[in-house]
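Sample intake sheet
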Amino acid sequence: MRASTLFFPLAALALLGCTADEETYDYAAPSELCGLNIDPGLLQPLLPPGKTLAQSSEGSYEGYDICTVTVDSSQALNVGVSFSDEYRDPMQRTTLADSRREEKIETRVQGEEAVLWATGVNISFLCEPREEAKYTVLRLTAQQHSGPSEPERRERIEAFAENLATAVKQEHGCSS
């Protein structure tokens, strides 16, 4: 009888401990991000748990039109799009702030030159038939939160970046 008297309170405490540590998403990832149609299933893994999600266009920074996503009023994700008359190397557009102490990997996203790290990606591509400012640099940065390992996080960033690049190309009428 003593064993059962101790078992139930301990089991209840264990259950309370599990529920207190669980991360919950009280918001749904949007299907439109910064005016672009995206796959919310690819966006959600990049966002932290929380109660509310908001988007805002901050204007421009370093030549990028910036859109910020916040979760519970904390910055969670930034998307920047920049147009130029000349090609810009994505590695050169990667700043120290973009890739603090993280391994940068030169890669291709949708066949386009890109630089990928655990919290972001830069992709450069030609946007034809635009006559002016036809080169595009797409920058995505996601704040790191508890969760997946760095390689898994890079995979998630890359998967969403492919979706986002498609959305940017569609929005701006890029054929390439």
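Comment: The radius of gyration is 20 Å. The chain has a mean pLDDT of 80.
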